[in-house]
Specification:
- With about 170 residues, the chain is mainly alpha-helical.
- Helices cover about 55% and strands about 10% of the residues.
- A hairpin with a 2-residue loop joins strand 1 and strand 2.
């Protein structure tokens, strides 16, 4: 089973509400399969764990990759994989429908295609700021002027420190 098929199977199973619903009554089963309850989905796509919530057969965009929000690089990887997963699931379901597609199939395909269009991945790029030799020299001069002020009430030294440290 390729990664698109695996993601599709996990997506359909997660949003269908069929697993574990048979003992909870028909009303609960219909509410869940109709997409009336918020459902949390966790799936793996191309080695990346992706989580999101659905409601009314729609992916809630602000919930995509919520488990990785505290780590910018992990969130970037997750959200880009989620965007790819939604798009590939939409393409796969649109180009290879079953002979007799069910209402659940149509709802899942519509949900994946809507997410493929509406979800925008988060892209973070974290790197060290580049400094020039002039910036390094100005910072060293400011540090030296600040150190010279320690224990001093010299008005000229205070004004010098303020001048060389302005904007820092």
């Amino acid at each position: 089973m390729n990664s698109v098929s695996a993601a599709l199977a996990a997506l359909m199973d997660a949003v269908s509400g069929l697993s574990g619903q048979f003992g909870e009554g028909v009303a609960s089963h219909l509410t869940t399969t109709a997409g009336l309850q918020r459902e949390h989905v966790e799936t793996r796509y191309q080695g990346q764990m992706i989580d999101f919530d659905t409601l009314h057969w729609r992916v809630l965009n602000d919930s995509v990759c919520a488990n990785t929000r505290q780590n910018a690089m992990a969130h970037t990887r997750c959200s880009q994989a989620a965007s790819e997963m939604f798009a590939s699931t939409c393409r796969e379901m649109t180009s290879n429908p079953p002979t007799l597609p069910s209402q659940r199939y149509h709802s899942t395909r519509r949900m994946a295609c809507n997410a493929a269009v509406s979800y925008r991945p988060s892209v973070g790029n974290i790197q060290w700021a580049e400094t020039s030799a002039a910036d390094d020299l100005a910072e060293a001069e400011c540090n030296a002027a600040t150190a010279a002020l320690l224990g001093s009430n010299d008005l000229d030294a205070i004004q010098y420190q303020r001048r060389v440290c302005a904007g820092r």
